[in-house]
Amino acid sequence: ADRKIWKVDESDKEVAGYVRKVHNFYQVIVRNAGHMVPADQPRVAFAMINSFVDGTL
């Protein structure tokens, strides 16, 4: 599957990360974050979880 650029808001200049989807499996890579994404990138982590729950990721 192709990797797509993901931004928290379309108006953001900075890329939050990358998303890849295969069937019902999502892989999200968050830039500038280690294994504790909420500690390293809280805004991005919150947006990622909301997008996943809303089905807009």
From TrEMBL:
Q: Which residue spans adopt a coiled-coil conformation according to this UniProt entry?
A: none
Query: Which species expresses this protein natively?
Result: Leptotrombidium deliense
Which UniProt keywords are listed? Carboxypeptidase, Hydrolase, Protease
The UniProt entry's GO biological process terms, in alphabetical order, are:
proteolysis
The protein's matches in InterPro entries, at most eight in alphabetical order, are given as: AB_hydrolase_fold, Peptidase_S10, Ser_caboxypep_his_AS
This protein is called Putative serine carboxypeptidase CPVL-like protein
An example molecular function term from Gene Ontology annotations: serine-type carboxypeptidase activity
What family is reported?
Belongs to the peptidase S10 family.
Which Gene3D superfamilies does the record match to this protein?
3.40.50.11320
